[in-house]
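P.,

For your records, the input lines for the assembly:
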Amino acid sequence: MTIIWILLAFLVGAYLIAVLESWAVHGRLQPARPAFSALALLGRESLLARTPDRLFFEAGPVLLLVAGLLAVAVIPLAPGLIVTDLATGALFLNAALAYVLVALIMAGWGPNGAYGMIGGWRFLGQFVAYAMLIVMPITAVAMRAESLSTVDIVTSQAALWNIAYQPVGFALFVVAAMGLAWLPPLDLPTAPGDLASGIEAEYTGVRLAVLRLARMTVILALAGATVTFYLGGWLGPWLPAPVWSGLKILLVAGLMVSAGRLVPRVREARYLALSWKLGIPLALTNIFLVGVIALVVPI
Amino acid sequence: MTGMTAQMIFLAFFGAAAVWFGIVVFRTKSMVRSALALLFSQTAVGLMFLVMQAEFLGVLQIMMMATEMSVMAIFMVMFMMDPGGMGAMDMTHQKRLSLWAGGIGLVAALLVIWLAAWGPAVQEIPGAAQQAADLGRELLGRSMFVFQSAGLTILTAMVAATMVAIAPRKERKE
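Structure tokens returned:
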């Protein structure tokens, strides 16, 4: 029963994020827009590219959706309101999101088209930039909680949220999460304008609908992860715990889908250089500082 | 008893899947399919860990292999003069040598399995959190030297392989 409630909550969340994203893109708040575009996609013919790798082409969007849902499974919305509280939750989240990469390679390479293929490989290049900056900040979070369980990570922030305890880790994680969810300015795999939607180029109809829904799930999972790791999860005064989780997740997701649009798209090489020359030293410093603070000050 | 049987069935299933994907690696004519087959073979090994209730190792294996094999795929595509990995090529070479090396490796592995003193099987499986803690102590204890040297060796090999693979450029004139 809990699982159904959580899935429903995340479905509503995915819809709201789609509304927010269309607001950020088109500048008008249209609550019905995602429903209409979903209906339109479902009504359209789902074309098959010429000589595709049928297995990769079909499996790509589905694998992306599965990866997003598995990541959602370890995000706690309230005490007890979690699909499964694994002892290795934070690591499991990483493992699930690693398959976003596999799904995008399959979806990009499968249709046998130039734009999609370039989009898929671009995402792999992007992965080399963001991957360490997802894992290393989580390491520091787990160090403070002395556990990989997402529930323990939330309760460890009762006295002070991690955004104040390790702000550098928070900043690195959010930017890396935007890279993982290929959100602007890191939307190189789709890059509307210079790559004709990249990995989405060869998908139409119901397959495109699955791909878009899966992407919303991934964004939601990442916003949920940010809230769990840095913003105290369900913790907060007055309101009930699930409401706090929902509000925080929507706020983070809304910022993630809108803020980056104010910045020009970052080139692959520049993103890689920034991540490795600036991001990773900062992440290592963050781990060191958190280790020292955890040993010296008991918060 | 039924739990044990179900566990054995799943273990055998994922083991067979790992072997099958391992065969696909060499039967396909595409670099990308080959790399992804290797990926799913390793994922199946990760699922075997999960079936054996080694949660941390399983999740770690599933995570690491997705990323490692994908990065391997892009390096293959970059070095192979085949834009995007769309072209077909044979995945086997030096067949006689490979057969011998594979055969000797298999015999060695079987000998180790057969001859090693494995000690008594654990009766009580520790909880997942306890496993992670035990593993951490092991890695920072007697296994540290082995892991550090292995890591450094792999890094050196990667840098060296990349250096060798880059075509030498003529020195620029000042």
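Two observations worth noting. The radius of gyration of chain B is 20 Å. DSSP finds six helices and no strands in chain B.

Regards
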